[in-house]
Fold these 2 entries.
Entry 1:
Amino acid sequence: MAPENNNMPETFEQIIRSRRSVRSFTDEVPRIEAVKEITASAIYAPYASATGIPLSETRKVFVLKQNSEKMTEAVELLFSQLKKSSAKLDITLMLLPFLRKKMKGFAERLKAVSDSGIPSLKNAPYYIIVAEKKGFPPVEKQSLAHAMQNMWLTATHLGLGFQLISATGLMSKNDRFLELLGLPKGEYELDGCVIGFPSKPPETAKEFDMDKFITWVE
Ligand SMILES: Cc1cc2nc3c(=O)[nH]c(=O)nc-3n(C[C@H](O)[C@H](O)[C@H](O)COP(=O)(O)O)c2cc1C
């Protein structure tokens, strides 16, 4: 498929190395074919067949368009859930101070996000949610990560920006959010992302010294 712009990485290696988090988007809406290619790549990602659940039942992808009634409601629900989760975590840390060392950083981050919201959810053209059915072994989170990564690399290949919206996971127990997606309660884990055109060129590919990370065990 033709890229959405001319800054597209060409080789597979370039796609892997130029994949970055994009957190600010223009109002321009990507072509529907690009969105279809990105969502299709989530379906091609590996899933846990050992659970015995067929893929058609295991994975569901939802595309929400900016300014649509359902997107607006989904984002409001998510922000109010973020506030509730942040308040709950603050109380937990007050009651169980020994958890502070481990969880303080996350609690502060959650508080900041719950105060200021997630700006891209208000301007990215598409919010994509993937639902993965819970099973045994309980590997739905790993499966979701594969689906998100496929979409991230496809978006990068097409010259589009991508941001993970991990807070989507908090909504797997939110009755109204599940109702909005037509999902039954308690059966699916969720993850999400937004896509669109980056408002500024994504940061350049990072350089890593592989010797610091990789050990050849011989
Ligand atoms: C499990 C996981 C969850 C993440 N959740 C978010 C998120 O909710 N919002 C966000 O902006 N970035 C999120 N990120 C992206 C990381 O912050 C990002 O990948 C990291 O800072 C490296 O930057 P890069 O993606 O530009 O290479 C998440 C990454 C991982 C692996």
Entry 2:
Amino acid sequence: MMSQIEFNQVSKRYGAVEALRNVSFLIEPGDFCFLVGASGAGKSTILKLIYREEITSEGDVSLDGVNLASLSNRKVPLLRRGMGIIFQDFKLLPRQTAFDNVAYVLRALGMPPAEVRRRVIGALKVVGLLDKVDAVPEELSGGEQQRVGIARAIVNGPRLVIADEPTGNLDPQSSVEIMALLEQINQRGTTILISTHNLTIVEQMQKRVIAIADGQLVADGILNNLPSEAAIMANYNLGT
Ligand SMILES: Nc1ncnc2c1ncn2[C@@H]1O[C@H](COP(=O)(O)OP(=O)(O)OP(=O)(O)O)[C@@H](O)[C@H]1O
Ligand SMILES: [Mg+2]
């Protein structure tokens, strides 16, 4: 279920802007992978193609062998239900409690209240926020808000979680905690793809890295094992 991601010679243009050029990679079910690159390199575009916010100009994006171009707009909500999406700015409902933020999607699906409660409490337990179920976002720290974002992303049991700069608004300590949490979720079998600028964390975690520069894939592998030229290029392009 929606956990293998394949990009086959993907190009994406926004009008005259060529955001991606001939990008190919394969992420297998259960993988944990970082997507790195300078601002404007094309990271968010790659993620948007996966959750079908955008469509390729050329080439194919497939999830578990299903070409997303063949998916009708009507089926997009169903596609997204099978994945968890985490954003840099959390995108929480400001007047709702942590519980209600996480419960929102399940209620929208018409799930019975007892089942909603069981699942929401389960997800908030995973992220260590059982003591904050009744807090609204402004009563939570940035790291705590992002943990609510993660609970919301995993509450429906997705096989794939994608995160666009999940630690972009967090201090170093919270960033490490959020990444550790995502690693823990990965260890239960969920495929994880994370875009990030945070090379310190990427280096610490020793996971697969796909590096994008100027819309092109410049490196793909465990950071220390990358061909040095590609590693330098990736670093060069990351130097803020
Ligand atoms: N809707 C859009 N319309 C026009 N150009 C766009 C649009 N979205 C992105 N772009 C352009 O496409 C390129 C890639 O953008 P993208 O958002 O994918 O980069 P990014 O790697 O996520 O950058 P950042 O690290 O700053 O988030 C940039 O040149 C950007 O200006
Ligand atoms: Mg981006």
